[in-house]
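Fig. S4 source data, part A: sequence.
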Amino acid sequence: MENTIYIITSGEYSEYGIVSVWTDEEEANKICKLYNARKDMVDYRVEPYAVNSVSSSEVAGWVATYDCKKHGYSVDVNNVVIEETLLTKFDLGRSHFTWQEVATAKAETIERAQKILFDLVAKEGAEKFGLA
């Protein structure tokens, strides 16, 4: 048996957080719209997650890696390394930047891993060149 929960989240990277969890998608979207109507300049969104009756701490996912030191901060998708891997649920949506200027993002889909990676590289590049 598989169910879905709907998590209202906000923020990116270290500011990413869960606001509330819902079992009803319609109610989650309604509450999310109310959060976004506030004037606090925070972007809220609803993220669906499948909940299995059999507990598992690992899921199939993707790791996207990009070497900024070698290729620069203007990401060329041809230089992004994508690998399918087994991730812990804690790893999903996570990203980091190493001291060697290598960016890594982990997600449940290739598209999500690439988006997180591109956002991370753009943010790091802007900070590195004083644009942030």
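Fig. S4 source data, part B ends here. Residues 58-128 form one domain.
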